[in-house]
Amino acid sequence: MKVSQKSLFEKLLSVQAEEIEFELHGHHPVAWCEFWLNPRRLRGSDFLMRWSQGHWSEERLIEAVNNTSRFFAVPYGPSGVAPDDVREFELYFERLDAAGLGNAKRPDLLVFKKSDQSKVKEAIAELGGLTELPFSSEEAPPMKLLLSHAVIAVECENSLWIAKKMPDYGTTLTPQKRLGGRNGLKKTAVVPTIIIKDEDIEALSSWQKRAGVPRGGSGKLDSGDKWNRCLKMA
Questions:
Q1: Residue scoring higher pLDDT (89 or 230)
Q2: Beta bridge partners of 131
């Protein structure tokens, strides 16, 4: 049976293959790749809880950046300005799909210098406010202005791990043979990590090239690298 294409809303709240933590035995084969949960019936579920946790991580990072004397951050991706109400949340992403922006990947936050704050606020106001950024073409003059002043783009994500309770949190770095004698942790150390999802790397790299946000450093980008300008906050 042919399965219709999922909407952006369904993609965001669907179960990822790598998140399945159990196996069922003694049953006929099941086409798990074609099995979708209906997001419209997920009120109060752990799916919406995970979404809220991701949104929380964006808010905490914005708060931390804005508390500095040199920089401030604004939400740029669709998740940062999505409504809290479940039904409005769904309609919001249906609007993104209708606008042809459902498959567009943008980083969650843009960070600017405090000295550019008035220019950035004027550009955002001209676009209709923060909630309209995900619907605005990056070819529009106000969007080009925003991107020209951005000093870093950030992709945010939280973890259910409590960092301070991880076994090797705070462990002193010692010389490691695999690192050529440089200080580091044992390969088996269990610590917080900074990881880019494989499926996000190509999309974020394409956005970076298209948007013209400068990238520091050099070298080939793959699933083992940190994305120089879009950081995954674990």
A1: 89
A2: none
